[in-house]
Structure formats: structure tokens, C-alpha cells
Amino acid sequence: MHVPFASLILIVLLLPAAYAQTTGTTPVVEKPGTPAPNMPPGYAGSASCRKCHEKFYTLWSSSFHGLAMQPYTDKLAQTMLTPQSADIIAGRHRFRADLLTGEVIERSGDGERRYRITQTTGGKNVFYFLTPLERGWLQVLPVAYDVRRKEWFDTTASAVRHFGDRRDEALYWKERQLTFNTSCFSCHVSQLAKNYDLKSDSYHTTWAEPGINCETCHGPSADHVRMFRDLPANQPVPADIKLIVMKNLSIEQRNATCAPCHARMSPVTSQFSPGERYFDHFDLTCFENADFYPDGRDLGENYTYTQWRLSPCVKSGQLDCIHCHTSSGRYRFNEPATANNACLPCHEKRVKNAAAHTHHKAATPASQCVSCHMPMTEFARMRRTDHSMRPPTPATTLAYKSPNACNLCHTKKDAAWADMSVRKWQSRDYQKPVLERAALIAAARHGDWTKLPAILAYLASPEREEIHTVSLVRLLANCPADEKWPVLHKLADDASPLVRAAVAEVLGARLDAANAAALFKGVGDDYRLVRVRAASALAGIPENQLPEEHRRRVRDAVAELMDSMKSRPDDMGSHYNLGNFHMARGQMLQALSAFETATRLQPDALPPYVNAALAYNALGQNDKAEASLRRALVLDPANAPAQLNLGMLLAELGRMADAEQAFRAAFKANPKSAQAAYNLGVLLANDHPAEALDWCRQAATLGQDNPQYGYTYAFYLQRAGQPDQALQAIRTVRKNHPTHDDSARLEQSLLRKKK
After folding, report:
1. Taking Cα atoms as reference points, which of 523, 518, 524, 521 lies closest to residue 506?
2. Over the stretch 206-252, which tens digit does the pLDDT of each residue have?
3. pLDDT at 10 over 60
4. pTM for the full predicted model
5. What's the CA gap between 454 and 476, in Å, rounded?
6. Cβ–Cβ under 8 Å, residues 94 and 88
7. ∠ CA 611-613-619 to the nearest 5 degrees?
């Protein structure tokens, strides 16, 4: 019997595009009264609204939306900022904002440089400052101002996550992730035209107005203004006023209008208009991402839309954003006496007797609904309100260290005290399902597939919830077990387009008849997000091998997919995903071109180097494959996939000693890597059989869902003269994988010899 090395692995990551969130500031400057020179056709500018809508104009122009971005002025500096008294030190650099000159000074061993502050964003929690760099880049400066604490801080260091199981380091401030043109797309300015040139990596970005203007939500207003300007006196107002009116939109349309700037997402198109469907234009990050705790509370910067879709109030179909917020972003229920009116009319009984429900004194902040159901946490100096509206779950604090509302106020008490308190108050254990779902998310994140039966049972349950379902489906992409496929096939018809899109991504990993059938249906889905995900998943099937009846729909969906990938040509992830698409189609030269562009845009991005190595390997250019992997390892010597692929490449080239070194490094980087253990077992089998047997045992234990690992362990046990142990091992494999042919044959061989 021959036991092969595992093949090289592709890092299949759908890298999201950058995202943005709208913030605001206390008014400093009045909005200009003349139309901007960059106003696109059909738009009239916010000043055109003022004559007829003076009250709303005044409210908007001083709102968080109206001042989401504004020019930096001496008046703003004098009114809103305090001088920076000490340098901020980041590595070998020192930074200081000079408010007198309107510059940020950078000092290092290379000397001193000054950067002019031209724009500010934010102001509710933090002021960020922008400066123009070469090639039209508008960059976020390395110092920011905490409005509440009245102090300066390091912009990039404030955004470092503390995951506990991985490194996360502050970026240098000139990295592309901090480029306004790349990362903020339209959520701080209105009618943005990015005007990016890929060849020169340059921008000629323009926008009609800073801030989020009236036409962002109401659509182009030139026809509306013209119609009312020319309307004769005493004439009735026409039914069609040539403007998008929020009250005429459905609840879902109103929510979708707010969502693009308040979601952690990746775009599918470059344009979105109020009234359109969110999932025709955007994807949504869920709890598969480590910036969420396993229970769904915020760890990093996630904005609100993911948790919002988790809210039972939202899922009822009765709640929209403007119930609590005005269209200019103001909160409607700021007065303490009316704070709980936000929860009317649905929760009238509890609002009338809030003290009994909250177990806190009436007319106190602790007795406000939002204190317990929408607790506020802070990350990167930005305060975020949890929009899931779930009750406090201190049990998840005990399990995962996630924040809970009780201990945000009762700081001298611990989570065990809070857990005991809420359990006394409620006879129903409302925390149990939260803990159960969080445990499934946590296990799937860590590749602990002993919980696979529970995960699949949840996904098959009619009580499954959209966001948790999507999270688990995406995490199942890393699960090798065949048991997942029937459950995923059923989810391909889920009512949620987000679920259907997530399923389509995973189905592409194995294009058998059942998966392909579901994907053929997906390319004809009513939602663009599902269509493009299905088209991407079908990339491995050549067009001439597609069933005739599906070719047109696949071709149309692929065209949408290509448009999607080209919609953000300045984003590394777009080119990386395009490279993966070409590689799946066997178009290795096109894949390499896309990966090269990705690394040119972001030289420190590791996945394009790893996947480029696979393309080079497929072309027989193994010297370039090795060089690409070694470039990846310069970026991160402890990267397990890069080390693993290097080991398999070197083994293929017959350089076994070097391969062994790479496999050992891969296992050290990821002690749960069954694939690294398996390859070490195969590699060492002839010269070091005892050690090889131990590696095979580890592979079989770590990778119980892959029958090849258990089979190989049993095979080497037999070869080592341990037939009883070999039979025991192969029966374990047969129990978990009864259809695995090699295991069946080995079991029969062992039984015959036993007789």
C-alpha cells in the first residue's frame, strides 16, 4: 500500500473590502450655501433644500451626519481641541500635532517632516485628521483627539485587538488600510467619485459635499427643486415629488438605507441608492470573525448592522432605524423622562413598570431599557452601543470574557455575582441558548469538530437564527467531514439571502453533482449577492462542461462577479479574490497577474504570496513557487499554511530534510494541524518509524474527520507488527467513515490475518 503526501493547500479567503462608519461632531462651521463644483448631474446640493426646509436644514447641518467630515480650520482647532503637550511615540517615530500651524510633525532618525491637516472626520468620540500625500492619497494622520477625555492618542495603536491567541500589531500610519480614498468609500462625504488609476496607483478623488448630505438618503433632488420652484401658486402638490421620501419606503428599505455606512461589510457593487436591497450590493461580516466574541458581543470595530439583524425586535419586522434616530442621525429619546419611550408601543407593560422589570430604582439610568439591552462598550476610543437588544448575559463573560451590561456599571463586582443576580431574577434560563450557540461558534473557530453533530443539529433546526447560521456555515468551510453536505444543501433554500450566499461559498469546495445542482440554482437567485457567490464557487467547472441549460445563467452571474471584483480596483482583496477565481478556472497566468497586483497594492499581505506559489507549482515553475512561499515567510515566519505548503513543495522536489524542517515549523505554529502531523508521519516512516507512528497517531486524533489520517495510522501500526492496535484504529475509522474504501480493505486484511 502507498501512503501519499497531502497535496498543497489553497488559502481560500474571501477577503472583505475595507469598510466605514459614519460619525459626527458638534457644529463648528455652517454648511456652505453655494453648490459644490463637483456636484454630479441630477443633484442640487444641500443648500437647495434650505429655502423650503429651513428647520430640517438647520438640524441636519449641525448633526453627526452633516458634519461627518469637514475642513480643518483655525476655528475648529480653537473651539474643539486642546494643544498636544507631549509627543506620541510609535516605534522609532515621534508625532505631535501643531495647532498653530495646522500640521502634524513626524520626527525620527531620518529627520523631521511636517504634514498639513486638511480635513477632519468624527467628533462625537474622536477627531481623526487627514492629510494629502503623493498620488492623490488622502491619509489618516497618526495622531487623533479624544473628545471626551480631551487628550491626544496614537491612531493606529488604539485599534490593536487583544485576541489572546494571535498577534495583532499597530500599522505604520502610511499603510493603505489608513488611506481615506481606499477605506472610507462615501460614508463621510457625499457623491464621492474615487477616480482611481490602477496603473499609477493614484487618485483624483472628488466629492460634492463633505458630510452626509440630504441627497445621500433622499436621492438626487434637482428635478424636485425645479418642480417646486416652477409650481404655480395655489396649485396642489403632485403625487410624485421627484424625491425619495423615507415614510414611503418599507421598513426593510429604510433599514437598508442606513445599513451600508453602519455595517461591517464587503461591497458587491460600487453604487447603492436608497430604496434598493442591501444584499444586492453588500455582504455582511458575522461571528465567524474574531472581532466578535463567540457570543456576538463586540471585541473590535463592527458598527451595528450585524447585531441589529440579531435583534428580536428587528426580526419581528416592526422596527426600523428611524424609530429611534432621525434621518440626520440624532437620537430621539435623550431626555431621561422619555428614555424608555423608545420601546413603545411593543413593551408598554414593562415601560410602565420599569423598576419591577429592571430590578433598579425608577427614574435612574439603571432603569432605562437601553442600559441593560443596549450596553455601550468602547474600542479605539469609540463608544459603541450593542444593537442586538439582548438581555445581559454575564454567563458568557465567565466563559469568553465578553462584556455584559451588569459589570459595565457594577465595576467592583465580578461576572459570577452578576450571573447569580440575573438567575435569581428570572425563572427562565434565558442565558442557556446564548451559551449553547456561543459554544458552537467557539468550537468551530478552533476547528474542534467534536461538536459537529451539535452544529449540524442547530443548522437543521427550524429555530436556527440567521446571523448564527451564517457564522457557522462559513466556519464549516474548514471542516472536512462529509456529514455537513446534506445540511448545507437544505440551507441553500433558506429564506435569508445572506444564508444562501454563505452556503454557496462553502459548496464550491467540492463540486460534486449535489453541490453543483445547488449552485446552478444559486446563479439564478433573486439576490445579486447569492448569484456572485455561486458563480465564484462554480469557477472550477469549465464552461464547456456546464450543462447547456445552466450556461447562460452561469455566464450572467460570472459577469456580475467580475464587475464586483472590479468595483474596487484599489483594494488588495479584490485582486486577491480575482486571482483565486482565475486559479479555480485553471487560468494560472491571469491568477498570477492578479496576485502580483494584490501584493503591489499591499506588500505585507501574506495570502497572495501563498496562493501564487500554487499557481507557479501548477505551471511547473517550482523555483518561483518556493520563492513566493519564502517571501510569505519573511512577512510571518510562524505562518502555518505557508510553512505547510513549503513542506509539501519541498517534499515534491525530493528535498526531504528541508521538507521535514518546514513541516515541524508548521506544526509548531499550529499544534492542531493534522495535516502537518500527517506529512511528518509519512516523511519519517522509513528512517524513524517510532516517531512517525507518533505523528500519525496525532494526525488521526486531530483529524478524525479525515479518514485518510486514521487509515494511515492503522497502516503503520500493522507494519510495526501491532495488528491488534491496527485493527482497533481502523475500526474507529470505519465507525466514523463507513464508506471509506481503503479502510474497509485494510480491516478485511487484518481480520483475515487474525484468523
Report:
1. 518
2. 999 999 999 999 999 999 999 999 999 889 999 999 999 999 999 99
3. no
4. 0.90
5. 13
6. yes
7. 115
Q: Tens digits of per-residue pLDDT, 233-246? A: 889 999 999 999 99
Distance CA 119, CA 131 (A): 7
Q: Is 303 helix (H, G, I), strand (E, B) or coil?
A: strand
Kindly report the number of other CB atoms within 10 A of residue 246's CB atom: 16
Rounded-to-integer distance, Cα 508 and Cα 485, Å: 11
Q: Cα separation of 647 and 695, whole Å?
A: 15
- How many whole angstroms separate alpha carbon 233 and alpha carbon 701? 83
| CA dihedral angle for residue 314, residue 318, residue 323, residue 329, rounded to 10 degrees | 40
Q: Which residue has the cell 481560500?
A: 12
Give the mean pLDDT of 70-91: 95
Other C-beta atoms lying within 10 Å of the C-beta of residue 206: 16
pLDDT in the model for residue 386: 95
Cell numbers given for 442 = 467557539
Which residue, among 151, 143, 18, has the nearest Cα to 72 in the 3D structure?
A: 143
3-state secondary structure of 130: strand
Give the chain's length: 755
The Cα–Cα gap between 212 and 18 comes to: 19
Between the CA of residue 522 and those of 128, 366, 504, what are the distances in Å? 42, 48, 7
Among 93-102, 160-169, 330-339, 346-355, which is the least confidently predicted range? Answer: 160-169
DSSP 8-state secondary structure symbol assigned to residue 322: G
Cell of 48: 437647495
> Is the model's pLDDT at 286 over the cut of 80?
yes
Radius of gyration (C-alpha) of the chain in whole angstroms: 29
Place of cell 517615530: 93
Q: Are 96 and 143 in contact (CB under 8 A)?
A: yes
* Residue from 159, 157, 142, 158 nearest 96 by CA: 142
Q: What is the pLDDT of residue 167?
A: 52
Pair 573, 16: CB distance under 8 Å: yes
Find the farthest-apart pair of alpha carbons in the chain and give their distance in angstroms, rounded. Answer: 105
Distance between alpha carbon 574 and the CA centroid of its chain, in Å? 14
| Number of helical H runs and strand E runs in the chain | 33, 16
Write the burial class of residue 132 (CB in 10 Å: 0-12 exposed, 13-18 middle, 19+ buried): middle
User: Rounded to an integer, what distance in angstroms lies between the CA atom of residue 330 and that of residue 316?
Assistant: 24
pLDDT band at 160 (very low <50, low <70, confident <90, very high): confident
Q: Alpha carbon of 470 to those of 15, 390, 492, 698: distances in Å? A: 16, 19, 11, 31
pLDDT range class, residue 8, cuts 50, 70, 90 = low
In angstroms, the Cα distances linking 117 to 36, 95, 147, 697 are 21, 13, 18, 60
Q: What is the mean pLDDT of the chain?
A: 91
Cβ atoms 301, 159 nearer than 8 A? yes
CB-count burial class (<10 Å; 0-12, 13-18, 19+) for 396: buried
Of 344, 352, 343, 395, the C-alpha closest to 371 is 343
Contacts of 288 (CB under 8 A, 6+ apart): 441, 444, 445, 470, 471, 472, 474, 475
Residue with cell 467547472: 541
Relative orientation angle of helices 689-702 and 723-736, to the nearest 10 degrees:
20
What are the DSSP calls for 255-276, one per residue? HHHHGGGGB---BSSS---TTS
Chain centroid to CA 193: 24
C-alpha cell at 548: 447547456
CA distance 704 to 733: 8
At 603, list the grid cell: 506588500
Cβ–Cβ under 8 Å, residues 27 and 60: no
Q: Which of 296, 633, 637 is nearest to 445 (CA)?
A: 296
Nearest CA-CA partner of 599 in 615, 585, 584:
615
Q: Are 684 and 720 a contacting pair, CB within 8 Å?
A: no
**Grid coordinates standing for 677?**
502531523
